[in-house]
Design a protein that fits this description.
- Helix 6 runs parallel beside helix 7.
- The chain is an alpha/beta fold.
- It has 2 domains: 188 residues, Rossmann fold, CATH 3.40.50; 157 residues, Glycogen Phosphorylase B (Rossmann fold), CATH 3.40.50.2000.
- The N and C termini lie close together (7 Å).
- The protein has a 7-stranded parallel sheet with strand order 3-2-1-4-5-6-7, sandwiched between helices.
- The protein is globular and about 65 Å long.
């Protein structure tokens, strides 16, 4: 009994989103599970997967097709059928993303993670509508189990695919506490010596320049916050086409630097318009940061009572005043934060997913 996992989305140089989700599920799986896994790689990440998992998993197969390329709809079913033939059908196929090649072999159990349906609800286009009404719809109908990352995402999935009601299972992703944690004063001093180029007072925005991340609003909010915090800068990994001496753009932020930024920022700003889950604000909380979040999508579910919420439909000036008033008195007991974050555990996430998969074989 084996499980084939599509790992072509893993990119350890930019290990966020679906890449981190897939990597952590494999990395945190139990040894007896790893021994039953066949990982599908691409030419781009084959060496990375061999380095991290080559000695622990059953096999790593390098495909010619890259993640989300049209060729995957031919190549993956061919590889899966080939494996199913020599295992007498005792095989499952797991896609940790919305990539869903049509596998018609009924002996193959099928599993998928749908993180959100943003491409139907937010990024509306004829191409997205066609993809989700054909391949994704087929996969949902065909799948034995559909994993998702929040109850919000489950609700939205069932709105568009009501026949999947008995298949959708919420399994929260995890946090890497060995990477993101609150630093003591000694380590803060050590880090500060390493990162001397950083300002001592700053707000932080980590994300990308896609519209749903709402960086433009974060920037407006920061400019309004300057009225209350005149010495503060904004640090971000999002580039924009104009210069502002109050903004420090860091193109490459590794986990070590990110951990320090979370630990030392005045607050982490996350005015996102759509999230299936929302890992960055949780990472910030794990480091003891104050988090400013929108009230939209999954964020209130995921962050609970541990964020300062703002209505991003209101003017930035209005929200800046609310934030300034709350930041001065916002003093969470860190042990309460840690207890809250315990629900986000990669080992538990991996264990639940593979239990569903192997219990059906």
């Amino acid at each position: 009994m084996i499980c084939i996992v599509d790992c072509r989305c893993i990119n350890l140089k930019k290990n966020h989103g679906i890449s981190r989700y897939t990597f952590e599920i494999i990395r945190n799986s139990q040894d007896y599970v790893k021994e039953r896994l066949v990982l599908l790689s691409s030419g781009k990440n084959h060496e990375q997967l061999e380095k991290h998992f080559g000695k622990s998993v059953r096999e790593i197969i390098k495909l010619k097709s890259t993640f989300l390329s049209p060729l995957e709809n031919i190549e993956i079913p061919y590889v899966v059928n080939k494996i199913a033939n020599y295992t007498n059908g005792k095989v499952a196929y797991f896609s940790p993303s919305f990539s869903s090649p049509p596998i018609v072999n009924k002996n193959v159990r099928m599993f998928i993670t749908i993180h959100d349906i943003m491409h139907i609800e937010f990024y509306k286009s004829m191409k997205n509508k066609l993809y989700y009404s054909t391949l994704v719809k087929y996969y949902i109908k065909r799948a034995n189990k559909i994993f998702t990352v929040s109850y919000y995402s489950k609700e939205r999935i069932l709105k568009y695919y009501p026949l999947a009601r008995d298949k959708v299972e919420v399994v929260y992703p995890g946090l890497d506490f060995s990477t993101f944690s609150k630093l003591d004063q000694e380590n803060k001093k050590k880090y500060s010596d390493e990162f001397k180029f950083l300002p001592t007072k700053f707000f932080l925005f980590i994300g990308n320049n896609k519209p749903h991340k709402n960086f433009s609003y974060a920037y407006k909010l920061f400019k309004e916050l300057k009225k209350y915090y005149p010495e503060h800068k904004l640090i971000t990994n999002v580039g924009f086409n104009f210069k502002d001496k109050e903004v420090l753009f860091l193109e490459k932020i590794n986990d070590r630097l990110l951990n320090y930024l979370y630990n030392t920022c005045e607050a982490f700003i996350y005015p996102s318009l759509y999230e299936g889950f929302g890992l960055p604000p949780l990472e910030a909380l794990a480091c003891g940061a104050k988090v400013i979040s929108s009230t939209l999508a999954s964020l209130p579910e995921v962050l609970g009572n541990f964020a300062i919420y703002i209505d991003v439909t209101k003017p930035a000036e209005e929200n800046a005043k609310i934030i300034a008033e709350n930041l001065t008195k916002w003093n969470l007991y860190y042990q309460d934060v840690k207890r809250f974050l315990e629900r986000y555990d990669w080992r538990q996430c991996s264990e639940k997913i593979f239990k569903y998969i192997f219990d059906t074989l």
